[in-house]
Design a protein that fits this description.
It holds the Pfam family PK_C. It comes from Hydrogenoanaerobacterium saccharovorans. This is Pyruvate kinase C-terminal domain-containing protein. About 35% of the residues lie in helices and about 25% in strands. With about 190 residues, it is α/β, with parallel strands linked by helices. The protein has one domain: Pyruvate Kinase, Chain: A, domain 1. Strand 6 and strand 7 form a beta hairpin. Helix 5 crosses helix 6. It is globular, with a radius of gyration of 16 Å. It starts with a strand and ends with a strand.
Length: about 190
């Protein structure tokens, strides 16, 4: 178990990374129950983190696995295998496959043509608080765009740095077209930046 420090109502992990996954998932689930939130979105490209979340008691809480679309793998569900999709759906997890809200087409243009765009600047600004924070905001918008969460209503979002999870927030998501209207109400847990 990673070292935790309390900082008000936020738990701070001593470092970034997947070693925080179990604790982050439990803290996120506890926060959802405490605050009466009925939807949790989790970034999980392979499905492993979403499966760990689904193994926790989640009666009355809809779990949404946000997986990246196609990407470099060429598969429709990115790294999410057909077997993993079936396992998650059997456990009541809703799958959201979408392009990254904070890169997508804009990164395609900037990598081909050089420079950068405003959405990439916003993504880098969010990374000031950590990669997991950027992921939490991004997957919330992706789920909002897909119509899986109510706009501007609190949900819990879980993201990470690389693999696994190390960040969870209570957020009121906006769709990507209204990105700046997303509101992070509470940071449940996050790592110190290494």
């Amino acid at each position: 178990m990673p070292t935790l420090e309390t900082g008000g109502s936020t738990m701070t992990f001593d470092r970034q990374g997947p070693q925080n996954t179990e604790a982050a998932l439990k803290l996120a689930m506890e926060a959802a129950r405490e605050e009466g939130i009925h939807k949790i979105v989790v970034a999980s490209y392979s499905g492993e983190t979403a499966l760990k979340l689904a193994e926790l008691e989640h009666e009355g809480i809809l779990l949404i696995c946000v997986a990246r679309a196609r990407g470099k793998t060429g598969r429709p569900d990115g790294n999410l295998s057909g077997a993993m999709r079936q396992e998650l759906e059997a456990r009541g997890v809703t799958i959201c496959t979408a392009a990254h809200a904070l890169s997508g087409a804009e990164r395609g243009l900037s990598s081909r043509l050089g420079g950068f765009g405003p959405v990439e600047v916003a993504a880098h600004a969010l990374r000031i608080l950590g990669q997991g924070m950027k992921v939490c905001v991004e997957i919330s918008m992706m789920a909002a765009d897909a119509g899986l969460v109510e706009l501007h209503e609190p949900i819990v979002a879980i993201g990470g740095t690389g693999y696994g999870s190390d960040t969870a927030v209570v957020i009121r998501p906006a769709p990507t077209a209204e990105f700046l209207d997303s509101k992070v109400d509470r940071i449940i847990c996050m790592p110190r930046k290494n």
